[in-house]
Amino acid sequence: MFRQGRQLSIAASLFRYPAVAPSSLRHYSFEVFRDVSPLRKLRRDLLLSRRTVGLVPTMGALHEGHLSLIRQAAAENTDVFVSIFVNPTQFGVNEDLSSYPRTWDADVAKLEQVNAELTRENGGRITAILAPTSKTMYPTLPPSSEIDGDGSFVTITPLSRKLEGASRPVFFRGVATVCMKLFNIVGADRVYFGQKDVQQTVVIKRMVTDFHMDTEVKIGPTMREDDGLAMSSRNVYLGTRRRAIGLTLFKALKAAESAYHSGKLNRTDILDPSTSITKDVLAKQQALSPSERALFEVDYISLANPDTLEELEAVDPAKGAILSGALKMAPLEETNAGEDCGLGDGKVPVRLIDNLILKPL
Ligand code: AMP
């Protein structure tokens, strides 16, 4: 439920989180915070009662990937804080901030469902949701997505320039900045991130180390659909045709993983099988008519050092590697009557990322 006095101070015009209607202002099994100081008071009370807090930062549009992190946090802490904030500074000026799915009511229902499953005897429960406004998170200057925009930013280089950062130059600056803010606000004992966004895990671990932040970074496994597609809030935009072709990324990574497990250590030996899969699938799609095909572009397939994300010419079997990739699904050129084209009618380009960890042999 909302803390005393909070409801009155929540002016609808201040909300950047659009689906929070007055009907949502009801009693939950957790408290919902819009502001920092009441949440800090709760955090202090928990500390004094020797309880532990695990923070799961999210941008909402919750799915099993998020929920698995929350369950892990509940198993390892007495109290779980979930943040829901679509962070503007990690979206580039031409990226999909406005079309990012915002599903407050469904998110809260899922969190209630998780809390109903969790009992205090077995571990923790969700205690707090932090759903701040942009003004709360960026209290002085408006959040800028410009590369040379003004603001108080955290930059973690060179990690942030690699892989995802190469085509999304402000992305990790935004991620590191918002996570620094969230970590400072919550003061969590542990923070939880998904393996799905592997570069994010490396950047956040580096930030925690370099800034001597007093929290433990925990990584949960990637949750996948039955066919292997990594769950993502953006998958709702794919539709049936693009979803089937989007699975190519996972298949390509699996082929490279098999090469590694069959004893290959050289870059070309590991990555060639994945390149032939993506090339083959793309050629077959290009041969189809615009109403049948789903085109894509491979942004990168990377074989990198797990700590530095430097590209590897050969995997050191004692260290292993991160195998990761990004694929840009183009909008559908032509759609058919009755076709499931996903949210946005197949017009929204969808960037898919995935990775597999090549463990030391
Ligand atoms: P997001 O809301 O996309 O910013 O994600 C919030 C957290 O959930 C991040 O730590 C993500 O890595 C994690 N996450 C997203 N998708 C998955 C997934 N399929 N499996 C596990 N964790 C995920």
Bound ligands: adenosine monophosphate
What structural category arises from helix and sheet content? alpha/beta
* Succession of helices and strands: HEHEHEHEHHHEHEHHHEEE
Q: How many strands, what sense, and barrel or not for the largest sheet? A: 6 strands, parallel
Compute the separation of the termini in Å. Answer: 50 Å
Estimate percent helicity: 25-40%
Rough outline: globular
Approximately what portion of the residues adopt beta-strand conformation? 15-25%
Low-pLDDT sequence parts? 1-25
Could you give the order of strands across the largest sheet? 1-4-3-2-5-6
SS field, number of helical segments: 11
Count all strands and give the number.
Answer: 9
Radius of gyration: 21 Å
Task: Indicate the mean pLDDT.
Answer: 92
Pathway: Cofactor biosynthesis; (R)-pantothenate biosynthesis; (R)-pantothenate from (R)-pantoate and beta-alanine: step 1/1
Catalytic activity: (R)-pantoate + beta-alanine + ATP = (R)-pantothenate + AMP + diphosphate + H(+)
Pfam families: Pantoate_ligase (PF02569)
InterPro entries: Pantoate_ligase (IPR003721), Pantoate_ligase_C (IPR042176), Rossmann-like_a/b/a_fold (IPR014729)
